[in-house]
Here is the input.
Amino acid sequence: MAQRSNRLVDPERSLLLVIDLQESYRGKLYEEERVLRATTNLVKAARILGVPTVVAEQYPERLGPTRSELEEHFDSSTEFFAKRTFSCWGEESLRAHLAGDGCDQVIVAGIETHVCVTQTVLDLLRADFQVHVVRDATTSRFELEDATGWQKLMQTGALPATTESILFEWLIDSRHDDFKAIHGLVV
Here is the structure.
């Protein structure tokens, strides 16, 4: 097979980071259904393909656990980290995990685009990770904050993606053993 661009997501080099999709935000997010559907499909695909998943929870004692409809798709290898900093990189244990995981690509989904997602992405870029932000799997409470956060992210070096683009980059080839299972998530 021909050598692939190093800017394409590689299942051997990447991990999925799900940020703050917690119970306390239920019913409060702009285009919430889209974001939950997209994030669920990312989590399912990561599990099928063996891509590590890391979940960050902002002050879970106060804001609750990760949404139940996502949690049911995690497996025993999913790593959870509580944080109080807006950037995931600010949480020492999560930072150590990301730095020691061996992955140099981070696929980002979650909330809020203009706060925790943006701050995390900027810190990951500064730490020399290649960051792919999944547009249909990120949002904020309000449309303006979501759009402004997304615009800022696109001007900083983050790579825009959609759930479908990530899934097919992870597959690489339609002859992949898990092609039908992954394809079934997006059709």
